[in-house]
Design brief:
CATH class of the largest domain in chain A: Alpha Beta
Helix content of chain A: 10-25%
GO molecular function, one term (chains A, B, C, D): urate oxidase activity
Catalytic activity (chains A, B, C, D): urate + O2 + H2O = 5-hydroxyisourate + H2O2
EC number (chains A, B, C, D): 1.7.3.3
Binding site for urate (chains A, B, C, D): 74-75, 180, 197, 240, 266
Family (chains A, B, C, D): Belongs to the uricase family.
Number of domains of chain A: 2
Oligomer: homotetramer
Strand content of chain A: 35-45%
Order of helices and strands of chain A: EEEHHHEEEEEEEHEHEEEEH
Largest sheet of chain A: 8 strands, antiparallel
Radius of gyration of chain A: 25 Å
Number of helices of chain A: 6
CATH superfamily of the largest domain in chain A: Urate Oxidase
Chain lengths: 319, 319, 319, 319
């Protein structure tokens, strides 16, 4: 039952023209679901994370010869995530940076990597009862809040550290205050112009911090607030315009952010034609479609900030 | 390109011993995604629904002969849902009852059916800006709220109407105040007893109203409140106990409810063994497991209320 | 940090009018993912299962008092599933029956339960190589096959055993040989009649065996074959007719089956109107819609077989 | 009800230091579900696609001013997909290239874009009946095949066209012929070495063609075959080794491919410890875990092929 043993390429082959060689690579443990309870006070706090650790460096012999001598086991990476969580998480960004520091300082040949943290939000359960409660909230009982997931991707290349924060699936909708007209018409254009439509999207955004010396949790909360307020406030002539304004106001209020990228589906709500049934439909009854959907993606940036492609190389889902 | 035409059974066959016949059946349109905007005032309201309509009655010839003369097209059912939404939704329960009344009164041979409505919750976006806003909330911009989905299943059998309300995926967690011990041990038992564990679940609940003369929206909000408060409040010796108390308090506070059923997964959070790394773990670092999970299902009812199996026949996911 | 202790109802309350009491209940471990490798021969076989075990009996004190003395831990149920798999799985139906026998015979107060098994299908990887291969297939390398999942639900009530087999998500499509016309028209009807449409569905079916003395694996394979052949063969005037013929032919060829139930979505494929672009579309280009979809559910049964509601009580997703 | 009108930045601002400007952007219609039926012969063929079209070029005024004069509506892009499908799809790669040619040649300011096509595989239903059938297969009835999805991403930048083919979710498993040992051990390492384990993964692969003058469908089929055969054949000392061999053999047999990238989860199957129950477990009973999972990503390439970052810029899910 011994399968064919893969024969490694002779050493001389690697350099020859047309040789087949290993390119970029990374590996690790994905979606480690760790929940940290801070219980030093009666009012508990919980941090609910999904952590992915991926290492980069010289792992060639594992690929070409099945030699695992440099392969820090993905199981070891998982154990390390749990062990480091014992000291507290702080913020997703800080926790990812600690993991980056640990792995690159512990193993010579690990020269960098990628650490992604997703955080799910919980709120204390409101209660009218007073046992184990204060200010109308229970001390150690929680209900999951909102639809969005907070994200952080930290990448490290030698001593360079890149921090990209973000959120996914923040579902928002405007029931008026959105138009769409003035677009070009060709032989395939049938869309009717409108000066009043529902605008709905599920925001995915990622932004790069140009410093690590900030309060990541406070910054996140405020970026989320600015995005929500701007989505609500902008009278939209195009989802592109709404997106751009959201990015612009985030950058205006957050000098520590170099650029921000958005991926925003246009979740169509079509006005239902009730005329066949003898009814008018003055923008009241809509059909929420699933697929296809519009998809608007753009980056808003500062003209004087140096691009940092390494920060974005594996931050997926964006142009 | 004519496939084999199905030959209907001769009329004499239906009555003979061992004949193959049609049993229970229903059909309709599923998951009609309708969004109703109430825009008569500056502060809009939106109702975001997924509606399923299924008709019952005598549709035998469609099955046995492909004769569609009794088949109210599922497309017609969809159109009807949109048309009736024009007059306002009210509550999921009321909207489902209106659909039931419409179909059973419009078509002689439609003697009943099943109408299920799911509602997704939206909140006005909080804002510090004042344009189109009042009391710190935007008038016509919304953000999706919470993780749970409100549900209503109305079934009608002739003139009898059954209303089962509910919710799905209400995710809750207690970081302490939960024990589990005293269970029997056999040769396959390895579980260690605990007097302090995380208790987490995603509540699915359904309850039957014994009257239709109530404010369904107010009732829903209060049942949800009671369930959350009770989950938080009960010091749990078993998830079964928490479930039972949640049902008991709902029935105690809501005389209009005959019985309530729960399906509650026990979403395990295992304490991570950090001893191999020289660390203690005093209930601080947990691993959130996906599968398998415990699954606790039970009904809490009033001893003097007559069971109504027709109300529950197709309300799935419960014992 | 002690939450409110739930006070059990006094014994006298249970019998009084209007008392709140426990109704039907069951509990256990859900979705235990077990893979059994049969490796006694060079050509391995693998059985890939998701097993759910739920016990029924008298568990009242766990609910009312948090007394776990009768609660066979769900962890113990999981361990038992793994231990019994060591002896071989046989078929999903047989494995579920062994679990039923084990739990009801091991614990006096466990009077019945529900055991559901889902099986995922794997095929040996075809290969042109000869190492560890025979007849063009590799001995111990597999690729997942098909989209459907095989299911079995065994319920036990005292000494009575009920076996319902089935499958989920068998995706099929006919590109012609399907019509739909002759349906009634009312004020909400806009659908155009058609004598040639795409018919697509994802079959979920469940059937009850009236005996346990059969080769369950062979029966399953043949029922699946008959359903596929019949779907292909019937010239369809309604999805209801196709469904009925599928059930009829299964019952005609399988006397060991008492009745069969189907839930079949009508997955709409709408002909795209290309006329605005100056193109004809003779049934060539279709838009595959997501929601809403038609939903057709029916039972086909033998007129002389006694109904057995206990076999179907918790087999969900059907009328 | 007019929301705040977004004021465009004055023209002078764009050039000034620290100005906030638009970065990379693209937009279009996502997941257009088109099914093409080729029915010129009795034996039909169906092509089942999900097509995403995204345009690039100068769309600045839409973002900064809500001026839609350059915005080819996403609805128009959808219509174009349907209209072009009328002429036949050919292969996902060819269809995407036709869309690229259409949009870049039709609109001056559209200088490029991204077109992604996913294809779902269907097989003719095997049948023992002879009506509308030949060689044991039905002419126009189909069943969905396999678990994997074929993918193609075509990007165009001016006159440069990049074609990346691929597949997602090809689920494979070896029940023996896999070892893992020799990895480094640190204070966080607890994993035990093994010389016989289950190796399971769900292959996602993408490869770049260096020419467009090939039979894309034949190439796809053969790449898939080589990957499956190699996965089966390689006696694995590390999933990295299996991955590398899969890539190497694809490149060796397909000179038209410049490089190939893989993302392969290590879907852990843990041997269950049956010792507490007095049972041995000689690699027979495994627990299939969900999360966390290993994640191995790498590129295999030719040393003499010039890298083409533009081909991979938005091909996500890889390092």
């Amino acid at each position: 039952m011994s399968d064919t043993i893969a024969t490694p390429a002779p050493a001389s082959e690697a350099g020859q023209d047309g040789a087949i060689v290993l390119g970029d690579n990374q590996y690790g443990k994905a979606e480690v679901r760790v929940v940290k309870v801070d219980r030093d006070k009666p009012r508990h706090r919980i941090t609910d994370l999904s952590v992915t650790s991926q290492l980069r460096g010289d792992f060639t012999v594992a690929h070409t010869q099945g030699d695992n001598s440099p392969v820090v086991a993905t199981d070891t990476q998982k154990n390390t995530i749990f062990a480091l969580a014992k000291d507290g998480v702080g913020s997703p960004e800080q926790f990812a940076m600690r993991l980056a520091e640990h792995f690159t300082s512990s193993f010579d040949w690990v020269t960098g990597g990628r650490w992604e943290v997703k955080e799910y939000t919980w709120e204390h359960i409101p209660t009218s009862l007073t046992t184990n409660a204060s200010d109308g909230e229970h001390d150690h009982a929680f209900v999951k809040a909102g639809t969005e997931t907070r994200t952080a991707v930290v990448q490290r290349d030698g001593d360079d550290v890149f921090v990209v924060a973000g959120l996914e699936d923040l579902s928002v909708l405007k029931s008026t205050g959105s138009e769409f007209h003035g677009f070009p018409r060709d032989r395939y254009t049938t869309l009717v112009e409108t000066d009043d439509r529902i605008l709905a999207t599920s925001v995915t955004a990622r932004w790069r911090y140009t410093t690590t010396d900030i309060d990541f949790n406070a910054a996140y909360d405020d970026v989320r607030r600015v995005m929500l307020e701007t989505f609500a406030d902008v009278h939209s002539l195009a989802l592109q315009q709404t997106l751009y304004q959201m990015g612009k106001r985030v950058l205006e209020t957050h000098p520590e952010i170099g650029e921000i990228k958005f991926s925003m589906p246009n979740l169509h709500h079509f006005l239902v034609d009730l005329a066949p049934f003898g009814l008018e439909n003055p923008k009241e009854v809509f059909y929420a479609a699933d697929r296809p959907y519009g998809l608007i993606e753009a980056e808003v940036k500062r003209s004087d900030v140096t691009p940092e492609p390494r920060a974005w190389a594996t931050v997926t889902g964006f142009c």
